[in-house]
Amino acid sequence: MSPRQIAFLGASTGVGLSALKNCLEAGHQCVALCREPKKLDHLKGPNLRIIKGNAHNVENVSQLILAPNGTLVDEIITTIGAKFSTSKMGMDQPDVCEKGMDVLIEAIASLRKQGTTGAPHITACSSTGVSKFGRDLPLLMVPLYMSLKVPHADKVKMEDKLAASGEKFTVIRASLLTNGDSDRVVRVGIEDPKKGFESKAIGYTISREDAGKWVARNLVQDMDAAYLNKNVVITY
User: Fold this and answer.
1) Residue 9 and residue 225: Cα distance in Å, rounded?
2) Which of 3, 98, 123, 193 gets the highest tally of CB atoms within 10 A of its CB?
3) 10 Å Cβ neighbour count for 189?
4) Could you give the C-alpha distances from 3 to 30, 74, 189, in angstroms and in order?
5) What sign for the dihedral angle of Cα 2, 8, 12, 16?
6) Cα 66 to chain center, whole Å?
7) pLDDT tens-digit map of 117-170
């Protein structure tokens, strides 16, 4: 495959950082939007461009997804999410994913109105435990996920808006994220947003490193048509 133009939102840590590293290693042209660009200093190179900005700012996101050749980028990978705030005793931004998707869709529409061409494939990182078609995680995990109602509600709104946007997409529903790398096999389940499960993969965890690596290899390097416009569970 020839090098792709890939835009990243939320790539300073976790799954996004792993996906970015693996895309760079594969020789793709990458651009990342970061509030603190210094967090990506260790990845500096000719294939990486870093833009200082916020995922909730339409102008920043528009700059991110406009490729150097004047078209929209080929791929957009968003892994933004809320963090727990001790001062608020809850999530710091309970609507961070929904708002981020609103801004991304608005930025794409705005650029197209200006004559920009392109149809990027959007990968958005979500979570298991949010399917409306049934359980996609082990029974023992259900009590834990009950405490994640606020961030999960935000993920659902993000998923729904992406599916309704008319853009090409894949939603990644990773099981409980852990740290570290491994050689473990990643199992995959596929759900159609309208029709329900096509296959199931129920597991407890997957590492952020392996989740990002899977995204880079299976949704960028060797895109499988089976994952297009689907919700995809990845787990060990």
Assistant:
1) 23
2) 123
3) 22
4) 10, 10, 28
5) negative
6) 18
7) 999 999 999 999 999 999 999 999 999 999 899 999 999 999 999 999 999 999
Q: Which residue type sits at 37?
A: P
Question: What DSSP element (H or E) covers 163?
Answer: helix 149-164
Provide the token pair at 188.
Answer: 């995959």
Place of tokens 């150097």: 68
Residue whose entry in the numeric block shows the structure tokens 């965890």: 205
Secondary structure E strands in the chain: 5-9, 29-34, 48-52, 75-78, 84-85, 90-91, 121-127, 168-174, 176-178, 187-192, 196-199, 205-207, 230-235
Which residues neighbour 209 within 8 Å (Cβ) at sequence distance 6 or greater?
18, 179, 180, 181, 182
Q: Which residue shows structure tokens 């435990």?
A: 129
Which residues, including other chains, have CB under 8 Å from residue 67's CB and lie 6 or more apart?
A: 5, 73, 74, 118
CA distance 163 to 34: 25
